[in-house]
Write a structure and sequence with these properties.
heterodimer, A: alpha+beta, Immunoglobulin-like, 3 domains, 6 helices, 8 strands, elongated, B: mainly alpha, Rna Polymerase Sigma Factor, Chain: A, globular
């Protein structure tokens, strides 16, 4: 992996923001351990964000730590030194014993109270996490519903793209809405592109054969459901997908044609 | 002391480590929360709750999942959002204006005793609008890459490169 290119991609900035998936976070953590220059970059980004966010704070916060400690019950009192008196004093022994019993009881109560408070905190945090999960799923559901509505539209043209010589097992599907000039591309049947390569989508007219690029699929790996929406205002007669160097190519590399499908005349 | 050691001591309930981390990040958390709730006293309360929560749930943090700062900022955003959704907050008639974090920094009194505030004021004033938007969403509001791309109506790849360029500008200004 080219570390410089990786750093320049901007993924570490998103890592510090917390906007990546759990899987991506774990990948970056592994890189941090392996490459000091990646760790160094993350620390610099983080320090920038620490400074920036702190600048928004209208007041000093250092003095509030005392209150935080108090609320957590962390303020330990200095131990009291017992006074030694000469001679045996049964009353004092009984008194100390009673104090000890009361003290232990009190300690137990405080401990129990703290445990309960901690449990409440844990439950609250769990609740927050659940809320986030629910929100995520509800978003996913809305997206799925939108997709179904789109696919069921009677004017949608579905085109199956079959695997070609370089990768006979590959396949893809194109759903084309001519009214809105939108294409939804389902590329679940394509293998992960190798490092430094991207898939590029082409609209083709057949006589004479003229390819027009519809763009590259840059976030193939990070997109979970492998569905991509792209614009297509061309009078396409066929669609093809080729593997190209990152950034895409002017014209398709035909030896790397992965899938191809012809639009049936309606 | 290395950050990793500090965090692991904190997870072992070491009060000194807790205080060090508090001193490193409390102001940032207060800033993020203030940007959401727009009330200094409420923001101070929420910020304290965040550190109490962090202490109680220290075990749930793991460096494999991300940076400690990122973990903390996540708790802060959630707590602040919970606060503005709460009944007591809604009843208080607080007016949440739509200013960006930059406006808050620039509205700070210039006699502020926080020495670095004056310097950064000039810096952020130079940030382009498109940088302000993307930083606000990703760092202050906790949007995912995808959510930011939908809100700003630009491709996901553009969000990533634009954000990188904007943070680089800030780093240049702050000499980080």
């Amino acid at each position: 992996m080219d570390i410089k290119e990786y750093i320049a991609s901007g993924i570490l900035e998103l890592y510090v923001a917390g906007s990546l998936s759990e899987k991506e976070n774990q990948e970056i953590y592994a890189l941090l351990l392996k490459h000091p220059e990646v760790l160094d970059e993350v620390i610099k980004i983080e320090s920038t964000i620490v400074t920036l966010t702190a600048a928004v704070s209208p007041t000093d916060t250092k003095h509030l730590f005392k209150a935080v400690k108090e609320k957590l019950g962390l303020n330990k009192e200095t131990p009291v030194r017992p006074l030694h008196k000469p001679g045996t004093n049964w009353f004092s022994y009984v008194g100390w014993a009673a104090a000890l019993v009361v003290g232990l009881g009190l300690f137990w109560f405080i401990n129990e109270n703290n445990n309960l408070k901690e449990q409440i905190q844990t439950v609250e945090t769990d609740k927050e996490l659940l809320e986030v999960t629910i929100e995520k799923y509800s978003n996913d559901l809305t997206e799925s519903k939108q997709l179904i509505t789109f696919l069921r539209d009677k004017d949608i043209i579905a085109v199956s793209l079959a695997g070609q010589a370089v990768s006979p097992d590959s396949y893809a599907k194109v759903f084309w809405d001519k009214k809105t000039n939108t294409v939804v591309l389902d590329v679940q049947g394509l293998p992960e592109p190798p490092q430094g390569k991207v898939y590029q989508v082409w609209s083709l007219t057949l006589n004479p054969l003229t390819p027009t690029s519809l763009g590259t699929i840059d976030d193939f790996s990070s997109d979970e459901n492998k569905l991509f929406t792209i614009e297509n205002a061309n009078a396409s007669q066929a669609f093809g997908i080729t593997l190209e160097p990152a950034g895409g190519s002017e014209s398709p590399t035909l030896e790397q044609l992965y899938t191809l499908g012809i639009v049936e005349a309606s | 002391m290395q950050l990793e050691q500090l965090v692991s001591k904190f997870q072992d309930k070491d009060e000194k480590a807790f205080e060090s981390l508090y001193n490193m990040y409390s102001e940032s958390m207060h800033g993020v929360i203030y940007n959401i709730v727009r009330d200094d006293t409420i923001a101070q309360d929420v910020m304290q709750e965040v550190f109490i929560k962090a202490w109680h749930n220290a075990d749930s943090y793991s460096s494999k999942k991300g940076r400690f700062f990122t973990w903390l900022i996540n708790i802060s955003r959630n707590a602040a959002i919970d606060k503005i959704r709460s009944k007591s907050f809604k009843n208080s008639g607080k007016n949440l204006n739509s200013d960006y974090f930059v406006d808050i920094i620039q509205d700070h009194d210039s006699l502020d005793d926080k020495t670095d505030a004056i310097g950064i004021k000039n810096f952020v004033g130079k940030l382009k609008k498109k940088c302000i938007e993307v930083i606000e969403l990703l760092y202050f509001k906790g949007y995912t890459q995808k959510e930011a791309s939908e809100t700003l109506e630009m491709p996901i790849g553009t969000i990533k490169t634009r954000n990188r360029n904007c943070i680089n500008e800030l780093r240049l200004m702050l000499e980080v």
